[in-house]
């Protein structure tokens, strides 16, 4: 229940020495401010780094062949081998936890010889032979037309989806590429769609200069037979591709007569493992932020505790008089605790407001100046604010506990004798 006289006493006690009160409150204010800014900065860094994973199926592994490093069953080391189309079906049947197994073939590359022609224009581009599932593993925005579908796969249609970078270099401005043709290594492909990819790791321009065609027509047009260059493999939700890849490797090794302990014969890039490393890194950064912020806050709480001890010492005679006229120990303790909690919460709330203001200012600057690599949208969620408020309340109680206990130990007679 609100007690006007009690709150008047609290305000009077805290304002009797403004300078001392402000200096004491600054410790808590600074601690909460540092906590909020550190966590927001960590979140901004996390958002910036994770932009590179936007839209990508992170539970994915890319797998290719290398040279066998051990002899096995009469076959020598140093031999090469190729994945086959039936390897894909074998993985799907034997590892039901896999969501997508996409075989891929690749032609050309950036910096290579010109492999694409349209009229008098030529260019060197990465050309991929893919299945429709690849758009789920490496998403892209289809800006015109459509992507490759299973009708294209089954009928081995010579169709292509080109990036906006290819469109800019091969077509005039405002010229519609849909239905037109390009020659890839001398073979005509009809354009059925254009795409745009997001990329934040420095290769945004090159990511738009790729061409996707059906896997089957790629194999037929460029004499690949049933060979598979590499695979993109994604696990189902609830399963880790990192845990499943040993089983995948064992199946491939058995099918291609590779020594079971030959770990160099199969190359792979585990995107999920890399993503988990980033998750662990930012979890550690959050913990460091909490630890540093709380340690700074504790120093502020110690300051409040010290100042409350001084306040109790200064009010010894007042406390003695109150005890002499019937004030209970609990009322004296409650008064000191309330003063401590009030000062802690007020200073902490100012710290929260200043921290939030700084975060808003940083976001405003980022929005005005455009995106910054590795840093985006620093923010604090409501849960962190609630944790900070809980820390403030507990800190205020702890800061006032020792002074309150000292206050109720004062005997009325001894307090009245104090000068």
TrEMBL record:
Residues 21-248 form the MacB-like periplasmic core domain. One of its GO terms (molecular function) is transmembrane transporter activity. One of its GO terms (cellular component) is plasma membrane. Keywords: Cell membrane, Membrane, Transmembrane, Transmembrane helix. InterPro entries: ABC3_permease_C, MacB_PCD, Macrolide_Exporter_MacB. It is found in: Cell membrane. The chain crosses the membrane at residues 21-41, 287-312, 341-362, 382-402. The keyword Ribonucleoprotein does not apply. Residues 291-411 form the ABC3 transporter permease C-terminal domain. It is a multi-pass membrane protein. Belongs to the ABC-4 integral membrane protein family. This is Putative ABC transport system permease protein. It comes from Aquimarina brevivitae.
């Amino acid at each position: 229940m609100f007690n006007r006289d009690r709150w008047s006493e609290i305000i009077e006690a805290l304002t009797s020495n403004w300078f001392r009160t402000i200096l004491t409150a600054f410790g808590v204010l600074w601690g909460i401010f540092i906590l909020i800014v550190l966590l927001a900065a960590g979140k901004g860094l996390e958002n910036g780094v994770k932009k590179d994973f936007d839209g990508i199926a992170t539970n994915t592994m890319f797998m290719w062949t290398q040279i066998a490093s051990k002899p096995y069953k009469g076959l020598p080391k140093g031999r090469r081998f190729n994945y086959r189309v039936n390897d894909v079906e074998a993985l799907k049947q034997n590892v039901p936890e896999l969501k997508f197994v996409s075989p891929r073939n690749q032609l050309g590359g950036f910096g290579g010889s010109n492999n694409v022609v349209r009229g008098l224009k030529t260019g060197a581009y990465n050309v991929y032979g893919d299945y429709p599932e690849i758009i789920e593993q490496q998403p892209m925005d289809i800006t015109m037309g459509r992507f490759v579908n299973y009708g294209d796969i089954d009928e081995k249609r010579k169709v292509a989806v080109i990036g906006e970078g290819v469109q800019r270099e091969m077509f005039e401005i405002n010229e519609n590429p849909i239905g037109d043709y390009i020659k890839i290594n001398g073979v005509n492909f009809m354009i059925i769609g254009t795409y745009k990819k997001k990329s934040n790791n420095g290769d945004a321009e090159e990511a738009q200069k790729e061409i996707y065609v059906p896997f089957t027509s790629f194999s037929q047009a460029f004499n690949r037979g049933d060979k598979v260059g590499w695979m993109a493999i994604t696990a189902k939700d609830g399963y880790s591709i990192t845990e499943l890849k040993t089983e995948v490797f064992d199946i491939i090794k058995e099918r291609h007569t590779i020594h079971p302990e030959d770990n160099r014969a199969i190359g792979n890039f585990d995107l999920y493992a890399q993503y988990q490393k980033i998750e662990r890194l930012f979890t550690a950064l959050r913990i460091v932020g909490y630890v540093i912020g709380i340690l700074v806050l504790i120093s502020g709480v110690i300051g409040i505790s010290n100042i409350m001890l001084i306040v109790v010492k200064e009010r010894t005679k007042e406390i003695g008089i109150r005890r002499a006229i019937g004030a209970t120990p609990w009322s004296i303790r409650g008064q000191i605790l309330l003063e401590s909690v009030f000062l802690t919460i007020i200073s902490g709330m100012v710290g929260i407001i200043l921290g939030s203001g700084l975060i808003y200012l940083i976001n405003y600057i980022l929005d005005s100046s455009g995106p910054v690599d590795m840093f985006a949208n620093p923010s604090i969620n409501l849960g962190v604010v609630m944790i900070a408020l809980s820390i403030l309340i507990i800190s205020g109680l702890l800061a006032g506990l020792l002074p309150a206990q000292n206050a109720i130990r004062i005997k009325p007679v001894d307090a009245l004798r104090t000068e």
